[in-house]
Design brief:
Helix content: 25-40%
Radius of gyration: 27 Å
Oligomer: single chain
Number of strands: 20
Structural class: alpha/beta
Number of helices: 24
């Protein structure tokens, strides 16, 4: 099964005579379509690359090609006239799924003004309409004109235009005499760099305005970028300054609460979160940290540290991701039925491993890191490791307890890139130090091996996510008889990093899913399974755009036992989140994947069932999904048996790895083999 976002490009044919027109064409494209930045393929008869130097100053994504190379590697190409100007916002054309779309200008000689929500600068910046650029406009004049436009801007194009302006001396003025506020522009640029994971560059851009306490937004953005580099004292200073602004205060307090929490200062974190909620009772960041730092109702019983295994993991709270809530418990069940503090010492993965935490780790009989997609750079970013475990190399080398990585995934999206250096260095230190490194799919194994020197690659192994074999791990598990299942298809979609998931195809995806839901309702009751509150955007959009209403099962409000029961009793699950596939599969329920992330394709490859996934960009998404779903529903007993059969190899690998680690850690009992028994006979 192939999965990738649809590739869209603009294209124009140029020769030596038409080269002089290129700057005007590129300027008009940017000024009429400021939120658009796709490749611009320039087909030419064999011009030297140096001939495109001048044009590159007006667009960051030029792709010169000889005419005979064509543009067959793009799914959709929007052709532009090399000797004309773009006079319309071309964003709507990106949603067209035809292979070639000729752009035909409207008769209106003036370009359309950009539309969309305005992100204002903090000072005198106000609305402006795009104007046709004169042929002799200099690059810096064009940059200023683009940066003065209101509304949303494509990050690549914004950075291409704004960084030279911010690096130059003197005021930023458009050809029409409009001044652009440098500090306001720096904030927008710093935020764009931050979203791309370019944290050091964001700090460099934001720092010049740091001396002005009135620039609260800049201070908050700078503090957040400094946190991502683990420059915590500086970050705290700027975030405290930002709390003085009533609009910025909730975000600043949320960051301060996070900063205090990752240092183990729970009292301070709770206080900051409460102050943020006083400023905005709806702020999700403050609400999450407030709940995370509430005093426990009853303290856990005292257990000698030497009897525990330290478990470094992401521990979800309240209405956070339902899949993340069950992951730590699933990992622990691989080593026996005991999952509480009598055997396990909880260590939140995002907390800084300082000397106090290091001492806690070394006092235990072993350290397990996992599971989940921890090899991801942009959730709780830190400059110590570059991935989710906030551990400096120096502290990692000082861990003396046996160390294992268990069921962790490499979680980058298509089109998402790692900052070079830091994560590779941390991974090398981790693999050198760990007794076992097991990643949850072979795709992740290969991606991590690529970041390691040749001598360490063979130390990275496959360890399936424990959620995929849960029916073999939960004590007392019994598989439902055919009559015990509800006649229900549970549907799940994910909305975090929506741009990376859907690209330009969200409208198409929504239309195809509406068709599939209507078809499936003839075969089963279709209900929506939300792993997070944000997932419910699908239900709202489906009702608004297509008049379809789905009942919602809010899985994020369930206990782990209730969550497993919901998946155990469903007849079929169609899921976009990784654990909306792996959890039902682990419960013995057939599952189809809506593939918007490589990790789902990796898992389906591991179990040799690529046909259990459909890319959300597939040209016949509705028909393919419906056909496969109806097939599983029609021959349901065979589908369940197939799931059970697919689990056997995953369970074998898990048992072997867990037994080896149990021996290393000196854990009593036989892990993974004897914990659950209703499932064994059925497998």
């Amino acid at each position: 099964m192939e999965h990738r976002k649809r590739r869209v490009a603009f294209a124009a044919r140029v020769d030596a005579e038409r080269l002089s027109w290129l700057p005007a064409l590129l300027r008009s494209l940017a000024l009429t379509s400021p939120a658009v930045c796709e490749d611009v393929v320039l087909l030419h008869p064999g011009l030297p690359d140096a001939d495109f130097t001048a044009a590159r100053r007006f667009h960051p994504r030029l792709v010169p090609r000889r005419e005979d190379e064509g543009y067959g590697d793009y799914d959709t190409v929007i052709t532009l006239p090399a000797e004309g100007l773009v006079r319309d916002d071309l964003a709507p054309l990106l949603r067209t799924r035809r292979p070639v779309v000729p752009y035909e200008p409207t008769e209106d000689p003036q370009p359309a003004s950009p539309t969309g929500p305005v992100e204002p600068f903090e000072s005198e910046h106000d609305a402006a309409t795009a104007e046709a650029s004169p042929p002799d406009l200099t690059p810096h004049q064009f940059y200023a004109e683009y940066c003065a436009l209101p509304g949303r801007k494509a990050h690549d194009l914004l950075l291409h235009c704004a960084l030279p302006l911010l690096g130059a001396d003197g005021p930023i003025v458009t050809p029409a005499g409009k001044r652009v506020d440098p500090a306001g522009l720096a904030r927008v640029v710093g935020s764009a760099l931050h979203q791309q994971g370019r944290y050091a560059e964001a700090v460099d851009v934001l720092a010049p305005a740091a001396g002005d306490p009135r620039r609260a937004r800049n201070h908050e953005a700078l503090g957040s970028a400094l946190m991502a580099l683990s420059r915590y004292p500086e970050a705290e200073t700027h975030l405290l300054v930002a709390t003085a602004h009533p609009v910025v205060a909730p975000r600043a307090f949320a960051q301060l609460a996070r900063l205090a929490w990752l240092h183990g200062r729970d009292t301070d974190a709770h206080r900051y979160a409460r102050q943020g909620l006083d400023a905005d009772p709806t702020d999700p960041g403050c609400r999450a940290l407030h709940a995370r730092t509430l005093p426990g109702a009853t303290p856990p019983p005292p257990v000698p540290a030497a009897e525990q295994v330290a478990h470094v993991a992401y521990y979800a709270y309240e209405q956070e991701n339902a899949g993340d809530k069950i992951l730590p418990e699933a990992v622990r069940r691989c080593f026996g039925p005991t999952t509480d503090a009598t055997r396990w010492h909880t260590v939140p993965v995002h907390r800084l491993v300082d000397d106090r935490v290091l001492a806690d780790l070394n006092a235990r009989r072993g350290v397990i890191v996992g599971g989940g997609g921890l090899f991801l750079p942009d959730t709780w970013p830190n400059g110590n490791s570059g991935w989710q475990w906030n551990v400096p190399d120096e502290q990692l080398r000082r861990i003396t307890a046996p160390l294992a990585v268990f069921g962790v995934g490499f979680n980058l999206f298509d089109g998402q890139h790692l900052a070079p250096g830091r994560i590779a260095g941390s991974l090398r230190t981790l693999v050198e130090r760990a007794a076992f490194v097991g990643l949850r799919n072979r795709g992740s194994v290969e991606r991590v091996r690529e970041l390691l020197p040749a001598g360490l690659r063979d130390r990275v192994h496959h360890q399936p996510c424990p959620t995929t074999v849960l029916r073999h791990l939960v004590p007392g598990w019994t598989d439902p008889a055919p009559g015990d299942r509800t006649d229900t298809v549970l549907l799940n979609c994910a909305y975090d990093r929506a741009g990376l998931r859907f690209g330009h195809d969200y409208g198409y995806f929504l239309d195809q899913m509406a068709r599939a839901v209507r078809s499936l309702r003839a075969h089963a009751d279709v209900r929506y399974a939300a792993h997070t509150p944000a997932d419910e955007a699908f239900v709202h959009d489906l009702r608004r755009e297509h008049g379809l209403t789905l009942p919602v099962a809010r899985l994020y409000d369930l206990t782990n036992e209730e969550l497993l029961d919901a998946y155990r009793r469903a007849r079929l699950v169609i899921g976009m989140r990784g654990h909306a596939t792996m959890l039902p599969f682990g419960c013995g329920t057939p599952a189809l994947s809506l593939v918007s992330h490589p990790k789902l394709a990796y898992f389906l490859a591991d179990i040799d069932r690529p046909e259990w996934g459909v890319s959300i960009h597939a040209p016949d998404l509705a028909a393919d999904l419906t056909e496969r779903a109806v097939g599983l529903l029609t021959d349901h007993e065979a589908a369940v048996a197939d799931v059970h059969g697919r689990q056997r190899e995953l369970l074998r690998v898990t048992r072997e790895n867990a037994a080896s680690l149990a021996e290393l850690f000196g854990l009593p009992g036989t892990p993974a083999q004897t914990t659950a028994r209703g499932a064994g006979a059925a497998s």
